[in-house]
């Protein structure tokens, strides 16, 4: 079953197996399912494996600790020696 949106009826309807006219394999992972809504209007649904979310193969997880440890140590070293101040120096005050 598919949930199909009919633009003529302006509503979503369930498309059962009996209402499906044909299924076409457009490209790898993309299917085009064509059918008719209960009132007889033509409805086309794009579906397939290309529309399902997958994990990004380029993401290998968080950086290993052996990479981040030197940066964290430097950050804490800087934090100790330089106090962060957001106040404007005296000459920049207008009043
Ligand atoms: Zn319709």
Description:
- The strands form 2 sheets. The protein has a 3-stranded antiparallel beta sheet, with no helix packed on it.
- It has one helix spanning 65-81; strands at 2-6, 11-15, 20-27, 30-36, 42-47.
- With 95 residues, the protein is α+β, with helices and mostly antiparallel strands.
- It has a domain at 2-51.
- 5% of the residues are buried.
- 18% of the residues lie in helices and 33% in strands.
- Zinc ion (ZN) is lined by residues 6, 8-9, 37, 39, 41.
Topology:
Blueprint: E1 2-6, E2 11-15, E3 20-27, E4 30-36, E5 42-47, H1 65-81
Antiparallel strand pairs: 1-2, 3-4, 4-5
The structure holds zinc ion.
